[in-house]
Structures are given as C-alpha cells and as structure tokens.
C-alpha cells in the first residue's frame, strides 16, 4: 500500500512527463475544499483513534490547572477539532481565534461556531449544544495565512495564547522550525507555565530535522490509512488535491486526469469489501512544544560539556529508528553524574528521554527527543567465589548498560562461566531487562532470571540507586538503596522483566553458571504441501516437549528456491569439554527429520553462529545483500494444526521471499516457580516462542513501502495467532498504537501482575520520563469508597456488609461485597484432602469446623509469602476496578490497623474501616461453638476487638441485638454514617482544589487546598462538611486545635459555626524567638512533604518548632479536635499530637483529627500509629492520589 507521499510524487512525475514544463493551474478554493473533504472523510479512523484522544490527553494537565484557556488554531478547516473534546474541556476555552486562508472554510467555520451561540445583553449566552459554550467574546475567524511575523494578520495587538494548534496545516511552511519558533513567541507569559504548541502532521519526515528543538510530547500512528472511493468523480477531486495543482482545460485536462486516476488505482490497495475503495498509507504524527523548546537543549549541553558523538559511532540497528526518528540530540554520558543531570533536566521541563543500548529497539530513538547513548558504560567484570574481592556465594558478572551480549558472553567464557543472554551478539541491555529469550532458556531460564542486582538512576528523583545484590566494590560512592525494603523488593521484581520502564540502568549484576559445551545439529526438510507441513511441525513439536532439559529443538519455517521448507536446529549441552559423543536422536523424531544436514561442537560464543538466519542456510546469506527486518513474538503452549494452518497461509501471503518464522523452544527452566515469583516476566507457561519476522532488502532511501508491507504482514499474523497464544514478548513492543493490544498480554495471564507493574510505574516514573518504553497498563480507576468490615467471629460482618451494600445499590451506585478469605479458602481446599470447597464457602457451620486450621494455614502461607495479605487485598480491588465498581465492601480482614497498612496501595480511593461489635454471648450463639474458642482464636491470630487495641477504627457499629427488625438498625447506620462519604458535596469541594503541576519541583502535582477559601461559598461548604463528618458530639468538644497557616483558615470558620474556641499553634524557625508570648510549650517538627521538597529548606536547614500557650488546652478535657488542611507524611500532625499528648497531658483517646485533604501515598496514618498515636481518630473530607 503506497503512502500519500508516494502518491504525490508519482502524480507530479506523471504530470511532468505528460506536460513537461507547461503551466499548471493552482487549486481554487472550491477544488481545495472538495479534495480536503474527501481526505477528511477517508481519515475518520485517524481522528477517532489518534488525533482526538491524543489532543485530549496532551491538553488535560493544562486544562485541569486553569480556569480559562485561550486558543489560536491555524488552518482548522470547516470546523475545529476542539469541538470533539469533552464538554469539561470545551467549557474552559474562553477565547478562540482561527487563521483560515480558505474563504469557503472560513465561512463554514463561522457558521459552525455561531449556529448554536447567541449573544445576550451581558455577553455570550451559553447553550448546551454550543461547540465552545463559554467564550467571553465573539470568536475571531480571520481569512489569512500564518506568517513569519511577530504581528500576525488578524491577531489583534500581538495577543498571547495558552494553546496554538496546527491540526492540518504545516504544509508549505518552510523552514518549519522558524514557524514553530514564531508560534512559541505567541504563547502566554512564562509566569504561567504550561502553554504549548500542538502539531498534527501526516508527513512525519517534514518534522524530522528541527535543529535541536526538543518536544514536550510526541506520538506516532504509523498504521493510519486514507480510504478513498474508487470512482472517477472522486479521484478527479482527490488527485489534484494530493498533487497540489490541477490542469487547465486548454492542456487536455480530461485526458491527464484519466492518467492520474490510473496512478491512484495502481498505487492504492483495494479494500477487502468488494474493491469499492482505495487505501493509502498516511502515517500521522503528533508533536508538542513549550516556550522553552528552542533553548532548553542548550542549557543541558552547556551543563554536560560533552562532545557530540560522531554519526559513524552511533550504531542503530533498527531501521525505523535509524531513518525516521531523528533525535533532538544524542548524548553519550561518560559518567553517572551525566546521566543524573539529564534526568534532572528532563524532570525540570517535564520531558521524556530514550535510551540507546544495542540499537535493536524501534523506540531507542524518537523524533525530537533527547536520547542517551550508554555505550561508554561497557565494562564487564567477573566475580568468582573465593576470589580476592569476592563477597559472593556464587559467581557474578557485572555488566555495564552499554555492553553488547557478545562481549559479556566472551569474557564470561574466558573465566569458565556463562549466562543466558539471548541469541544475538549485538543486542544490549534492553533485551536482558525485558526477558531475554535465547538458546539457553530451557537450561538456565531467561536473561532477566539471572539478574540479582542493578545500579540505576531513578527517573523519579535523579538519585543513584543500587537494588538487590550489588557487591560493595561495584557500588558507586553516592549510590543508596531505595527508602524501604519493600520498595527495593518491588523495584527489583519490576526490573526483571520490565526494567526499561523504571529507571536508567547503569550496570546489571548477573548470576553466572559453569560454562558448558554444545553439540548443534541441523536439518532442512522440504514441505511439498500443507498436509506435510502440518504433519511434520505438529509431530516434531510434540516430541520436542518430551526432550530432557539439556536438549532444545528450534524450528524455522521459510521459503527457499520456490519451496516451503522446515529447518530444525537441535542443541545439546554437556559439562564435558570437549563434547563427548552426542546423544542419539529419538527414532520418532528421525522419522520426521530424515538425514542430518550438519553437526558440530561449539562453546557459548559459537552458539551465536548457529542460528539458521545467521548462517545463511535459509536464504543463502539474504540473497547476497543487506536486509532490514521487523518482528514480533508470541508464546505458544502447543503447535497444533490450527497454528500451523495460520503459519503456512502467512508464508504464502508474505510480502517478501525473505520473511520467516522461528519457533524457539521453551519450557523447563523458563517455567521455574522461583523465577515466576521473583520477576515481572509473567509469560512462563509456553513451549515455543513464535518469532514472526518480516524481512526485506535494505534500501535506505526507497524502502518505505517494503518496510510498511513487512510490518503489516507481521501484525496480520500476530492478529491471527493471538487468540491461540498464551502471551506476548514485551521486549519488541513500543509506543506504536498497534502494540497496545499486545502489551495487554505481555506480562502474564493474571491482571494482578500487570496492575502491579502499572502502580510501580506510577511511583517510579511519575513524570513519564521513560514513556516510550514497552507500554504498561494505566492504573485503573479504583472504587470511590472501599469499606473494610472487621470484627470478631460471629459479630455479623458478612450480614452487615450485604445490607450496607444494598443501601448503596438503592442509591444508584455500583456496589460489591466480597470476602478476602475466599481466596485463602480455595488454596486451603486444594491443599487439604477431603475438604469440600463449596461447603467451606457457603456452609457457616462447616467453616467454623475448619476455622483454626484455616488460621494456621494462613499464617504458614504468610511466612512463605510475606506479601500475601497485600496481594489478596489488591486482587479484590483490581477486580472491582475492572468492573467499574463504585463502592467495595471487603470482609474477612485479619490485619491489625488495615487502613494504616493498606491505604497507600489505593491512594485514589477513600479507605475506611468499619468495626462490627457484638457481645461474647451473641457471637457464641451465632457461631454455635464452644465458649473457650475465643482464647484459641486470639492465640491463633484471628481478629480480636479489645480495649487494648493500639489503634482506632474509623467507625464502630454495635450489632449486639438480634436481627428481628429486618436489619433496620444496620440500614440506618449505612444511611447516616456511610452514605455521606459519597455525597455530591464532597465532589464539589474537590473541584475547588486546584491542581498545580510541577510545584514546588518537577514531579509534584501540588493540590492547592487553600484555594477552597478563595472560591465563592467554598469555605462555607467545607465548614458544613466538617460539621457533618465529625463522628462524635460537638457539644462534648472543649477546644479546636489548629496550626498555621491552613489550619487557621478552616478552624476559624468551623469554630464560629460550632461555637468552640481555638487553640492556635504557631511555627517557629530555628533559634528565633517564638510568636506567642510566654508561657508556652513547644516541640520540634520534622519537614512536611512539600516543605521537604522546596529549595528554601535545603538552603536554610534550621530545625523548625511548633508552640502554643501552655494553658490554652486545659488538662482533663473530654474532647479535643485538631483541624488541619492536609495529611500527607504525618510529620506536622505528629508534632501537634506530641504537643497535646506529651506536653499538654491530653489522652490520645480524647483527640480527634479532621483534615480537609489526605494524600495516602505518603503513609501518614502509618507514621501516627508507629509513633504511638494509633488510638487517635483521623477523619478526612477529601482524598487525593499522587504526590
């Protein structure tokens, strides 16, 4: 399928041949409009699948942080693409200007803008169906071009804009950098960061060379196509539009148009539905720039002072990256500090980076994005047990991120060692970190399975980290471990299978194995027909799965000399050197293979030369010329007749004779249980990895169409095989939109694996610095409210949860009640002979008989799997998120203080614990069990409600009465105490909290909670909600305690409403005098999350104290309520509580904390409990995820 660009060149060449240098007629406005309308109609999928979603995504941060947005659109056509945005974004557009040189389109655009907008006496009257309903003035549509001038025609008084949008119209603007720079000058003042120039363009090559301009975001849509009716009248309008000119009637216009029609029909591909349409490939690209795009690269290069790598030194093997993805700049760091500087620079400007290692990845370079060439980090070091510098139990190999696989294998072999690192000597770290499939997988597992440690630069902070087992002599001096053991375990897990997503790796530590020798045998078998192909592939694959771990059989399906052929390579390993007599081939296998084509003994380095593709056995060395390739890989459990049918059919449809399939055998060590748990590579249960490879002769100038045909063939085969596969290899995947569906199957069959990666990506790459790596799932929208229903056995937890859930359902909310113990019961029933799972799940008396054994089983499981409670909790949340559940009730929790323990895992949800209480007599009657069971339960670790609990549940429900009132008391509790947490007033209050990106430093999305007070009615609404959500009686409260500055604002309004006096706490910096006259009491306060991020604290690291009047809170008061604006790390609240409990002598049980906004990811509640304040009741109105 030809591209539109190829069609344009062919039409122009045909015109030159037929008319010579004769005069060509420029397109009239009517001719241009007719051609553009055909193009737009034929590109509807491009708008739906690429332009509209990407425009929404890229504008979202800006629109979320502003109340009013001004837009200048260049060449919008008959209507603006902005009209396709959701209403919430369109309502933010307060000023709109368009430059549309086509008079017909300008008129239609004015009609579109004003057909549903009326002007009233006080400005524009908003109508629900208006495309831009909140414009403050009439939209300005000017019939003029965008020119290289500081004062654009039609743009009044040099006005500035928040967004400048080119959706169709950078054609004819040369040089494009100058036009982009001109647009950047028209962005709003730098004091309001976030303004951007957004460009969509079909000819991605036209935006390739922008002389070092760095884009804010870029995206590619290579699969875009244009669909044009195969009719003479349509083609007579479309061809002149593409060519850019027409013929005059005096030049024999009709005859020449017929020639153009023939060109269109020759180059276009007929659609599969009757040939009524012609298809042309039209790759689309989006690129965005900010005010600093033209200058910020100069800032980075001035800091680094590194020479630009010579073009000959940059080895990019991937053809797409090499030809079509011109990086803004390639930096070759020589020290770790250089990498850190690049990351800090990217965080400062909210930019992305790519990493260039072996150069095989299609996304190692991206257009107008800075790339880090890691080739300077190419050292390989070997540590053996018992060596002079060894502190290891087994041999280790430390490889720099710039090493090639062949270098590592060669140096390891010189020390008598080997490590499984794939099957190509030129690949780099991207392969090891994302799996690493090669000839040794059955013997040693994947490359990522051998990773035991890494040194990396965090893209969340720029810190240098060492993770896992990194020998001390190979840790850089300033490298530190992650903040907690759990973070380190999670990060190492993610690196082993998805490592290109979580940081810039400096070096990798591999576990090494004793080197072995290998006997390699080859067969090439002709396949005269499809039946024979099916018989041999199915038979060989079945026998191969029975081979011992020391033997591997790979298969190749390829075309040679006009015949379909099957190639088989068998590898056999031995610790003997040299290799002794190879094991005889099984008779059943020989029946399919026949005589051996060749056989030889090789070492680990020689294995690289045994691949049939590399040796020339398949295509005689690529037919004597250089080639390029495009591949994707799926995992297959069985190679059956259905799989073979697809493969053979694809070989007949191949676009080039050089295309082939490689079926690489897996099993054995790949599916090792320890490796499965230790790393993120979740696709384990496969017998063959099917590598689908499109190959074409290399032509750096004119092979675009061959490359596109090969890529399309690969994706077509993938689409056919995907339903029969058990996973996708993620190492090949990138930001190509066609990879999105594949990425969903790249990390194993369980949703939990992929969602765990998504959460870690959000934590370790919050600014999307590595956005062009293998795409991971986005964290799904969690339930709005998660209620953990706890209580002792027999208290009625499941009964209450079911009724409470029904109350939420009756209020129109999607609600689910589940038991966290059900998964445990299933595992217990599977492990214990004679246990009836159905009765265990449904029969209460049967469950009670097994309760003690279940508890013991759970404790044993936790000892072996410490993260089991977390996994079980998240599994329920993920399942609910997948079904768009609003409210989730979870019963069966065994954890003490579950909110403090789990809240950081669900930072976008409100998490509450409701403890159901009942007397011992009531519970015993419900259990129908012996009276002394309680002691057993306590000893065995069951949940126990007692006065000596070290924390305070959020809510307590007394369920001591018999349920003879049809559960009315249970319902009333839900209506009065639970439903308020999903009231629409809370959503209104949340909308008043303005998000401010990258404040006070990059990566922080600051929530301006005090902005509530600056909204009309905001403080009154917040005060009302604080009153309603207080869990006790305001009449019992003696004083409201508040700390400056946020606490003062909200406590003052609340104090007036409830007629309660305030106790003011002031902050005192360093050794300065206090702000309150003596006598006072004071304590030291640690830095809060935001103050700890600010540069002023680093410049002035004086200890901060808080103080208050000594007698403002009388001892012996019944109740004290602390009011504050934010709970994040908990440092401020801990200081306040130390002041009240430790200095003022107030009992912790008499203190309630109420905050306006909580950020659970910082584990503030966990800190409160750890420091002895777990019994303090904490309530928050709003919950926000992120930092």
TrEMBL record:
Please name the PANTHER family in this protein's record.
BINDING OXIDOREDUCTASE, PUTATIVE (AFU_ORTHOLOGUE AFUA_1G17690)-RELATED, PHOSPHOMEVALONATE KINASE
User: What is any one GO biological process for this UniProt entry?
Assistant: cholesterol biosynthetic process
What's the protein here called?
Phosphoribosyl transferase domain protein
Give the classification, highest ranks. Eukaryota, Fungi, Dikarya, Ascomycota, Pezizomycotina
Q: Which family does it belong to?
A: Belongs to the oxygen-dependent FAD-linked oxidoreductase family.
Organism field: Podospora didyma
Short name of any one Pfam family annotated for the protein: Pribosyltran
Query: InterPro entries, per this entry?
Result: FAD-bd_PCMH, FAD-bd_PCMH-like_sf, FAD-bd_PCMH_sub2, FAD-linked_Oxidoreductase, Oxid_FAD_bind_N, P-loop_NTPase, Pmev_kin_anim, PRTase-like
Q: Where is the FAD-binding PCMH-type domain?
A: 323-515
An annotated GO cellular component: cytoplasm
Q: Which UniProt keywords apply?
A: FAD, Flavoprotein, Oxidoreductase, Transferase
Domain of life the protein comes from: Eukaryota
One MF term in the entry's GO annotations: phosphomevalonate kinase activity
Please state the span of the N-terminal signal peptide per the UniProt entry.
Answer: none
